[in-house]
Amino acid sequence: MSLRVLDWYTSVRCEEVTLDAGETGLEKPVCRVHVVEKPNFSAFLEGSEIIFTTGVALERPEELTAIIKECWKAGISAAVVNLGGYIKKLPEEARTFCNEVGLPLFTVPWHVHIEGLMQKVFQLIYEDSKAQNTLEDAVRTAIQHPEQQEEYSSALRSGGFAPEWRYCVGLAQTESDCAAADLLNAARQFCHRAGMTALPALLGQTLVVLFANYSAEDVEARMQELCAELKTLLSLPDMPFYSVGRCTKSARCIQKSYLLADKILALQLRGQLPEDLHTYARLGIYKIVIALENQDVLSEIHEEYLQPLLAYDRTCGTDYMEFVQNYLKYDGRVHDIAEKMFIHRNTVHYKIRKVEEILDCDLQSTETKLYLLIATMNYQLRPRQ
Fold this sequence. Notes:
About 50% of the residues lie in helices and about 10% in strands.
């Protein structure tokens, strides 16, 4: 949820508030409210404000246009002008400018007290913030306490998110000193501007974004866009790391999507996954290794299939570990392996026989290749000593 200019306008239409220009900007988010009576006030604005002005400090009515342009550059969402006292007529230049840039420009007659209109903005901001916090709590509850399904499902439904929808969790984290709260606020703004059916929340220092009714491919694209936006908005030195879990059949499985995304993010942060792998849907063979919780089994496979090769390479200065990885990557195709490793085809045949000798196995065996795939993937995921 995010408060829009349209929400405020709808709530005060009966109070003689008129939309004079900038109708295309009614979907802009509203986070703050300010009174602006003089030019050069934009340094005090943070963006997403509705500003109010009576013109009491203006020397000439034309200065109103300058104020509006200056505040627009600072990122305001709308302007409200109190007509009849100090400003008798809205400058046509101001109306034209607001229509061009899509900045909602409202007018109210002098007998309408603008403090009441401002109070309405404050009230709506409070209510929106409260609703947003409730939804964020629901996201955290779904992840940390999935057994409390009735509680978080009710909260999601109240916020317009049906529990029977499909959900997918995206995670983002930065290694910079950026505050987690800044990540969250920037993510909220991005999701609102993009019109996304998504709920950003924080879990520790990690940004969690719960997407509703998106495919895994769409979620990955949105997360990539979000992280690029975060880098720009927060002046981060690098793109945040991000990951995407598995799409669920309903809100009941949100935790499962989160846990998979969390594993992928951890591997990303340790540099143990290829840079272009962010989603569970595209993990391929890595899914098997991530799914194997029994480390004893993985250690057994490692000891049987990789340890002899690694020991031989250390002792003799050879590259049989790299050779096996390429053998699996190119499915044993001699020409491709030779080209990749810059060696002769006969050398490839020799290395195949040597690996079979070291491991006492048949590299043509499907079972051997499967175990080697699991072992090499697990080797890549292991923390380096």
